[in-house]
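Q: Sequence in, structure out?
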Amino acid sequence: MVSRRRTVRVLVTGGAGFIGAHVVKALLAEGAEPRILDLRSPGGREGSDVEHVVGDIRDAAVASRVLDGVDAVCHQASMVGVERSFDDAAAYVSNNDVGTASLLTAMANVGFKGRFVLASSMVVYGEGRYRCERDGIVRPGPRDPADLASGRFDHACPHCGGSLEAEPLPEDARLEPRSVYAATKLHQEHLCRAYSRELGAPLTILRYHNVYGPGMPRNTSYAGVAAVFLSALEAGLAPDVFEDGRQLRDFVHVSDVARANAIALTRERAAVGVFNVASGAPRSVGEMASALSSAFGPAAPAPRVTGAFRLGDVRHVMGSPERAARDLGFTARIEFGQGLLDLVAHVGPGSSRDTGFGGSDGRTARRSVVRG
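A: Exactly. Output:
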């Protein structure tokens, strides 16, 4: 008789959010049994056979209850995006750091030593990695506001003043968060590492690069650049591209991000360590705007390069996908153009805005909601 693998039960914090909902879908496709903890109610997903606990991760009683019987924890819950002002600092620290500490305390109280996956971000790196022909690998500091105002957006070598070539960042690059949000994400990593060392739980840290795809939040102060461009196009407006549009990012489709989580949570042996979750094919912000406008249709307005800038922005940042491919077994599959067509198909005329995050086999079963 062939023995069957036991179903893996996974707590997904933030499982009703943009990325979290895709992670839940990917786990269902792998035969896992996810349980969602989120501040949001299930909304239009009542048909999904996933237990959904409506509650705050900072509530110790809720955090303890949702851990009952789970084999693994996937921590997606986070306040995301670039803060509007420093007045947002307390909210970021409360949601991200205090929330994570509350979850870890609850895990420690039940002696949880199962697999633990943390959703981190490429923002912990700060500025990207650069190579000077004369001085090798260098790490320039923040750009001079006077240079930015004059339209000089690229870094110069801090040693010789020569031109620099951007390179992908490995996971062991120096970390230099440059915003409150970035600082909280790095602190999440530190808290989870401390827990892993003390309790012995295998920890996988996934540093997401620029995630886009169906269901991404828009029309908010915290939206990513793809969401901002899409919102403009939906309103019939030209996307405004900052600087000269040549700044490089790695845009990775949300279904690939979800698959990276599912691999980390269900693979036979835990992949301990830090991994970039990136496409490995960086694009310029201007290229993203132009491609998105083209995917939106021939009547869509072309992007407008404004030359405007934000002092906190980095010039280039992109991650090396090599360690994830080698040690996690993850390689992104969704090609850039295909991913944008998929995104636009979910927002264009006649499309459904329901992202359909139920079971991959179309099951419609119970929904359990417990309010904390």
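Confidence is low (pLDDT under 50) at residues 349-372.
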